Amino acid sequence: MLPDSNFLSAPLWLIEFLHIVTLALHLIAMNFMFGGIIILLFGKFDDKWNNPIVQKFIKLFPNAMAATVTIGVAPLLFVQLVYPKQIYAASIISGWFWLMIFVIAMIGYYFLYALSFKQTTESRQKIYLSIVLACLLYVSYIYSSVFALGEKPDLYKLLYAEGQGGTIINPDIGSYIFRWLHMITGAVTVGGFFVALFGKDNDSAFKTGKNFYLWGMIAAIVTGLTYMIGLGELMKPFMKSPAIWLVTLSFVLSLGSLHFLFKKRFVFASAILSVSFVAMVVTRHIVRKLALVGYYDPSEMTVNSQWSPFLIFLIFFVLAIATVWYMLRLYFGKQE
């Protein structure tokens, strides 16, 4: 007889805490890369493809991609640990599209390295970055589609009954399209922050970063509010939950960060933006729980603590963060 695997290997609060922390770190790395690519393609810089700020981003993109993928494994495993049946069912229905994520990500990774290591022409740099952007759009869309489907048990049961070929993308586009757009505009906002930070002594780069930060934030607020309004039956419990206060806090802090960024007070701006960022991640976590009320309650799962794997994870997680921090200090130390 196979052992029962339907249990939590650590207290729920610890798993959820680690999920939120690792997801926030994953999104920061992803937004740096995703937003940075969009800004490099569509932003205005003096002598763009020879601009030192643009070239600095191009050199950092492969590392950002590695950090995005590596750190992203942890929150994916944590959410699958807490919501195993929901995530599994949704990913099976979109199986081929889900599996293609790994192929598409590797293609994007290749072009980032090709761009970073080779002296390429202006047109080729645009083509390479456009290919990577297309790859990131695909990956992010499929993730949004699958995770939104995992929150609708009735829908994924119906879709699975209709076909088990793994070729179905979540047809309820209205439930996740604005969430996806909110993620993209949020990436532009974070990318704008880093462009402004790196280009604080470069007038054209700082102006471009500042503008993308401002308009990216406005677009993120609009798409976020549109997504929230489209919650439908979830709106009432959402308004009664801590999520509404987190959204309000995030909104106020985001606007406050504009002031500090425009004044080039990056420490305050980054601190405020980070708190706002974490607040939105927690909000997303609450929305998932609200969507599954009546279908699934993770707090009812049996807890069979297995501390050895968690201890190993925590040790290597701390070492990884320390290593990344050391690498960044070395890199930026060379730039000064």
Care to describe what's here?
This protein is mostly helical and 336 residues long. It has one domain. It is built from twelve helices and two strands, in the order E-H-H-H-H-H-H-H-H-H-H-H-E-H. It has helices at residues 12-42, 52-82, 84-93, 95-117, 122-149, 153-162, 177-198, 203-229, 235-240, 243-262, 266-291, 307-335, and strands spanning 7-8, 302-303. Strands 1-2 form a two-stranded parallel sheet. Helix 1 (12-42) crosses helix 7 and helix 4 (95-117) runs antiparallel to helix 5 (122-149). The longest helix has 31 residues, at 12-42. The relative contact order is 0.12.
What is the fold's blueprint, element by element?
Elements lengths: L6 E2 L3 H31 L9 H31 L1 H10 L1 H23 L4 H28 L3 H10 L14 H22 L4 H27 L5 H6 L2 H20 L3 H26 L10 E2 L3 H29 L1
Parallel strand pairs: 1-2
Helix pairs in contact: 1-2, 1-5, 1-7, 1-11, 2-3, 2-4, 3-5, 3-6, 4-5, 7-8, 8-10, 10-11
Beta-strand percentage range = under 5%
Name the structural class.
mainly alpha
Q: Give the % helix.
A: over 70%
In this structure, how is the largest beta sheet organized? 2 strands, parallel
List keywords for this structure.
2 strands; mainly alpha; 336 residues
Give a short overview.
This protein has 12 helices and 2 strands; from the N terminus they run βαααααααααααβα. The protein has helices at 12-42, 52-82, 84-93, 95-117, 122-149, 153-162, 177-198, 203-229, 235-240, 243-262, 266-291, 307-335; strands at residues 7-8, 302-303.
